[in-house]
Write a structure and sequence with these properties.
Distance between the termini: 111 Å
Number of helices: 20
Strand content: 5-15%
Structural class: alpha+beta
Oligomer: single chain
Number of strands: 16
Radius of gyration: 35 Å
Length: 623
């Protein structure tokens, strides 16, 4: 009866596999032709892949971080920035470089002073803000111009412009692929029984790899991580498929001719390798259910790579075995793998002990798994060998420490509430400083969002009081506040930033005429105010920035925000919680990077921000 069942099985399932295998082997020339065509096509189509370099793209749409990022991208402008450190330079040389860097095309501002926040250990740190959005390619052109100008110095640059991470990973993966290829060839030579099987296996891997890369464009858009690491993971996950098939072929070829050995080994390998691949695919399917869409992105790329590895092993490799069969027969050699029978004897002798040991280790491992630290940012990861970007970041970190900056988005329209929020947040020990339209100083002690009467604005802008009243009346009329026109216009208050920009519009349209000095002053203020408004105020929301101290114990004394330094303080923000490029000296004994001990020319016990100018000697306007 057992013999009859065996014959019945052979006549049904096995005969189908043998027929399928026979077709694959006999049509190998057609398969080679189709494979070559697909390889040529993939060599071009691999460049059609749309690669997403921003990992925040894969955040769940209902997450607060994703919603905040969408609002900021829609309503605010984030200018490109770069932290540029010049080492081995004197203070005089560093100060002389600042105006030269400002003259470079595309540079909006350069933040540098002689405090330890920007000069330390014979190194000068320039915080450069470019005149373009961080997504604009012009930022990269301006950055290259800065690098070229400073090429004669020891230069270190830290920036988020461009796709630095993607370029770094792509470069390193290219190097790793060379190492992997060398290791695979060595391992295959060491474990092979014939030299002729090595090119068969390598060609099978290459076909699967190239076809997988050439079809990535069918997925529409993939992450730069999936685009870079899938090839490595494809080899790691599917390299054994071709090896299993090759070993099965060698066993069958000892008794059968070449063609029959390939057919029989293929018919037996398809169910075995197919079952093995299902376990790997099943594990990857679990990643499809991740809310962080980077998981499904990688899962689909890897599942596709495994399917191509199976196709290469089942369809292309049989033809290669037929092609290299004579070479395989002629290049047989002794096995280089040493015999280790003692391992089997040891396993048998300890068969009652090893399971208990593994159970104990499993319990210990489960307990220790909860103590494993996880890094949720690149800044917390240290590599034993650093690339150029990491080395530059580390050099800057060694001299100037970083702070974390957070963005807080609130509905626009109520400056008083925003001011109260910033004041309250500024009282926390964990907060170094806060920034918003309500606490950025514009001129003569007035903040950007301070509401001024016509007389106050006239004194600030150097206008005649009557002209200021006319401007305020025009503003009220334009904003349909007719009650102010009928009432006492002298008490009408308008936020400074709104009135300044309104006056600039009136000057541009020729309605208001000013002197050359007044016009120049307004134009300079307009540039900075528009920059501030673009970065901090949208149509529906306002953005406020909170700088967090690394340690509450080292929190410096808060100080007013200088208007001219606005771009440098704003532009590092890309996400709702990000690592900003603002730095202070770790060894500084001053209670604040903006406050220093008084000089002989100042009667204050402490100098305020206006005393930290680069004039010699410094003159305190508070005195």
């Amino acid at each position: 009866m057992r013999t009859a069942m065996s014959n019945e099985t052979k006549e049904t399932g096995s005969s189908f596999m043998e027929k399928l295998s026979t077709v694959i082997v006999d049509k190998r020339n057609l398969i080679f032709l189709l494979t070559i065509i697909l390889l040529v096509f993939s060599a071009f189509s691999r460049n059609w892949v749309e690669v997403e370099s921003d990992l925040t793209y894969y955040l769940p749409s209902d997450s607060e971080t994703k919603q905040a990022l969408d609002i900021m991208d829609e309503q605010f402008t984030t200018y490109g920035t770069a932290e540029v450190m010049v080492a081995n330079i004197t203070p005089e040389q560093a100060a002389a470089l600042e105006p030269k860097i400002k003259e470079i095309k595309g540079v909006q501002s350069v933040d540098y002073d002689e405090t330890t926040a920007h000069y330390n250990n014979l190194s000068a740190l320039y915080s450069i803000t470019f005149a373009y959005s961080e997504d604009d390619e012009a930022c990269l052109d301006s950055l290259e111009a800065v690098k070229e100008y400073l090429s004669d110095y020891d230069l270190y640059v830290d920036t988020d412009l461009g796709n630095t991470q993607q370029e770094t990973i792509d470069h390193e993966i290219s190097v790793i692929m060379v190492y992997v290829a060398i290791v695979i060839v060595i391992v295959l030579l060491f474990t092979s029984e014939t030299y002729g099987e090595v090119p068969v296996l390598i060609l099978t891997f290459v076909v699967a790899l190239v076809l997988n890369q050439g079809t990535n464009f069918l997925m529409g858009k993939i992450s730069f991580i999936s685009n870079s690491v899938t090839s490595i993971l494809q080899l790691a996950l599917s390299i054994d498929y071709a090896i299993i098939f090759c070993n099965r072929f060698k066993e069958e070829h000892r008794l059968l001719p070449l063609r029959e050995a390939v057919i029989v080994s293929l018919s037996k390998s398809i169910p075995e390798i197919g079952a093995s691949s299902l376990t790997t695919i099943g594990g990857l399917v679990a990643m499809l259910f991740m809310r962080f869409k980077l998981g499904p992105d990688m899962a689909l790329c890897l599942i596709k790579s495994i399917l191509f590895a199976l196709l290469a092993a089942f369809i292309v490799m049989p033809g290669l075995l037929m092609l290299f069969g004579p070479l395989i027969d002629r290049t047989q050699h002794r096995s280089f793998v040493p015999k280790i029978p003692f391992v089997g004897k040891l396993d048998y002798a300890t068969r009652y002990i090893i399971p208990i040991v593994f159970v104990v280790l499993a319990v210990i491992g489960y307990r220790l798994s909860s103590d494993c630290p996880y890094a949720y940012g690149y800044g917390l990861i240290s590599a034993p060998k650093q690339n150029e970007t990491q080395f530059a970041q580390q050099m800057i970190e060694d001299n100037f420490t970083s702070k974390n900056m957070l963005a807080l988005i609130v509905p626009t329209g109520d400056y008083d509430k925003e001011s109260a929020i910033l004041d309250e947040l500024g009282q926390y020990d964990e907060v170094d400083s806060t920034m918003g339209l309500t606490n950025i100083e514009a001129l003569d002690g007035y903040m950007l969002a301070d509401k001024l009467t016509p007389r106050q604005f006239a004194e600030l802008a150097g206008l005649d009081y009557e002209a200021a009243q006319v401007v305020y009346a025009a503003y009220a009329a334009q904003h349909s506040e007719y009650g102010k026109l009928a009432g006492n216009l002298a008490t009408y208050k308008v936020p400074l930033i709104d009135m300044f920009l309104f006056v600039c519009d009136q000057v541009d349209s020729g309605i208001v005429t000013l002197s050359d000095d007044q016009t120049q002053m307004l134009q300079d203020a307009e540039v900075q105010m528009n920059s501030a408004k673009a970065q901090l105020q949208g149509t529906d929301y306002d953005r406020m920035l909170i700088s967090r101290c690394p340690k509450a114990a080292t929190r410096p004394t808060p100080s007013p925000t200088k208007f001219s330094k606005l771009p440098k303080s704003i532009t590092p923000m890309k996400t709702s919680t990000s690592r900003a490029n603002r730095r202070t000296n770790t060894n500084s004994k001053s209670p604040s990077p903006w406050i220093t001990r008084s000089s002989a020319s100042c009667r204050c016990s402490w100098l305020c921000w206006c005393c930290s100018s680069r004039s010699t000697p410094p003159v305190c306007r508070c005195c």
